[in-house]
Amino acid sequence: MSKLSGEATPEPKVDQLMSKLRRLQQGKRVLEEEIKDRKSVRDSLQKELATLQTEASELEEIYKEKEEFCRNLQFQCEESEQDSDRQLKQNKKSEELLEQYRCEIQEFKLKQRKQRMRFEKQLHQLIEQHKNLHSIFTPERLPNEIENTENAKSQLISAEQLKLAQLHRLNEELEDVREQRQLGTAAADTLEK
Fold first, then answer.
1. Coiled coil: which residue ranges (predicted)?
2. How far is CA 126 from CA 55, 117, 135, in A?
């Protein structure tokens, strides 16, 4: 040791130095133990962090997949709703058409029924006429009917001949009137000249 101010510094004792050295070495060991513990903690924390980061990325991936799946489900749900709406509209149109066809079928049946009733009525009338004609033109009454018809025929022929004679007379009178007019017109023309 050097002397600075001229006083002598007492030499530390070896025991004190040894004790200090032991304390320092013990402190060093404690610090090394603490460093080792801290390194161990740090390593385990880093492993845990790496595990958590892996889990986080896996969870993020799962979240993205679930989100995509959810979007797909939403899209499918919307499509299903649209399909359902289309089906409902189509069903409504089909029901309306069906109702219209039912009404047309009912109208057609009513028309057929009316036609059938009209036909049946006409058929009954024809049957009645046939019965009436049959009762009139029985073989027993046929000679009387023929005689009546011949009488009516001869009366009609007489009436026709009478009308023809009247018509012939009227034609002659008409010819006479025309001739007299022509003679009167010719005489008037001659007088004027």
1. 14-111, 157-187
2. 102, 14, 14
Residue 139 gets which letter from DSSP? T
* 133: confidence class by pLDDT, cuts 50, 70, 90: confident
> Residue 20, Cβ neighbours under 10 Å: how many?
11
Q: How many separate domains does the chain show? A: 2
96 in the same domain as 24: yes
Could you tell me if 158 and 82 lie in one domain?
A: no
Residue whose structure tokens are 């004679």: 165
Q: Does residue 133 sit within a domain? A: no
DSSP class of residue 6? Answer: S
Distances (CA, A) of 121 to 20, 33, 116, 124, 175: 145, 127, 8, 5, 58
Sign of CA dihedral 25, 27, 30, 35: negative
Quote the domain boundaries for residue 153. 148-188
* Tokens standing for residue 61: 């991936």
Q: Say if residue 109 is in the same domain as residue 41.
A: yes
Predicted pLDDT of residue 7: 53
Regarding pTM above 0.85, the answer is no
**141 φ/ψ angles, rounded to the nearest 5 degrees:** -90, -10
Amino acid at 7: E
